[in-house]
Give the backbone structure.
Amino acid sequence: MSLLFQAQFPVNMRYQWWHCLYLPREFGRKFKTYLLGSDFIDNELDSGGTQYDKGNFSPIERAIELEEIQIKDYMRHITPDDILYCSDLSFPGFFPNVLYHKRPRKAFAYCHATSINKFDYFENVNYSKWSVETAHSEMFDKVFVGSKYHADKLKWKNVEVVGLPKPPFCTYKEQKIYDVISVARPCVQKVNSMVEDRVNVEWPIVRKECNSWGEYYKFLSQAKILLISAKEDTFNYSIVEAIMNNTIVLAPYRCSYPELLPPEYIWQNVFDLKEKIKYYLDHYNEVPKLLNQELIDKFYDNVTDIMKG
């Protein structure tokens, strides 16, 4: 029995880059794991993704090319006893349809976000994309999500909350030179401009364009507070990364944030947020930087136990 791992296109400075490297390796501790389209992915990883703007989504033509290779690879290697793991239910979009014709013993997928989101990147095809995602979900034995919030939003019968994989990085202990930073992509989903404008009056929110993961993590480590003002969330790796780099995260009382963070780090309104910023800047050295560690520590055990069971 093998675990066939289908990864997304590895864009530099986006999570699917390290998914291609680290998740198959971690799953390899419990399964004989084969990365579908490994030669193609290795070439992309060797190039460092420098041929693509690090801030963009996967290049459409290349992502489709990779998926075509993965499907052929899958058809060559699949046996009735194998297990399939798709690293994202939504992207790429063709692979789940193959399961209708050629199924492994079991098939699983992780769902990081969905188009049930009026701020979604694919808002112009929101309804049709959601219909496709729902149809795809039925091809899998289980669809994994990171939080109860996402499970409740999907309402699919086969959804299982397993938490988040820990991002692979070394923590930094840089001098704290910034009071408040944001690393969110400047779009309606990720940034509430009204909130940030009111915070900016007293504490300028610092943003920095980073050219490598190391530079990004050091930037997180240089801040006392990471401000989250998003109206919708996806998988919240930035929260995990910030806490592990000794930075306090303040997030709104919505989405999955209350599941990831203790209540003292959740803000209810702008007044409450300002009070929390003032308090944590004054008492930064006195308070622990906390996270719901169970959502991180048990990810691989949760996933592998379900896939084996």
User: Anything to note?
Assistant: The longest helix spans residues 60-77.
